[in-house]
Amino acid sequence: MKLIANTLLLLLIALTGINSYGQKKEGSQTKTLYTTEELVVVQISPNTFKHISFLQTNDFGKVSCNGLIVRDGNEVIIFDTPADDIGAEKLIAWIKESLNCSIKAIIPTHFHNDCLGALGTFHKNNIPSYASFKTIELAKKNNYAVPQNGFGDSLNLTVGKEKVTAKFWGEGHTRDNVVGYFAAENVLFGGCLIKELKANKGYLGDANVAEWSATVKKVKEGYPDVRIIVPGHGAHGNKKLLDYTIKLFGVR
User: Fold this and answer.
1) pTM surpassing 0.70?
2) Cα separation, 141 vs 154, whole angstroms
């Protein structure tokens, strides 16, 4: 009996650990496909996958950082790099070996290291990068890896036969933060502009707190059909993440 109880306890701990990387929200299916010390990959819809890496910070300790992989046919587009080069190499290898896909583009959603810290690894693997002109400017100013191709307020690409967009709706976490959208499955990658439920305000060193709430209101209006939302850190969910972020930074 004691052996059975211990086995059940270990199983419960394992399941709890997996679920901490993602939530099941309103029909979204969460399945952990790949786990190492540097990288976790979680499937959140038939053709979107959240990649999770880990960044050691001075103010917040070891932080989990999200990115998004979008797939159609034998192509993928990635939003945000893993936090380090080891995670990036593992992500590239996993996509090629497990998804049997080529990587069409990497799109950092703002200039911080949790978005483009491993950009050099993608360039070494001949994967083109795209970012807003504002992100490129700030990356250069801070001596970070610099994306190769710039765009203004919006970018439209295709992955397989489907459309993928990146768009700037206004300032918030940073003055260059964009969000990504995969209309085929109504999945939004909010990046660090969007907070997970119950999150605090986080790092505000480059933020425009006064505009943050208004920017997220524009995001909410711009994607009325969104079903799954992935924040820059923490658990994904639904439109409640937008409402929570709007309230968190709203005028009191």
Assistant:
1) yes
2) 22
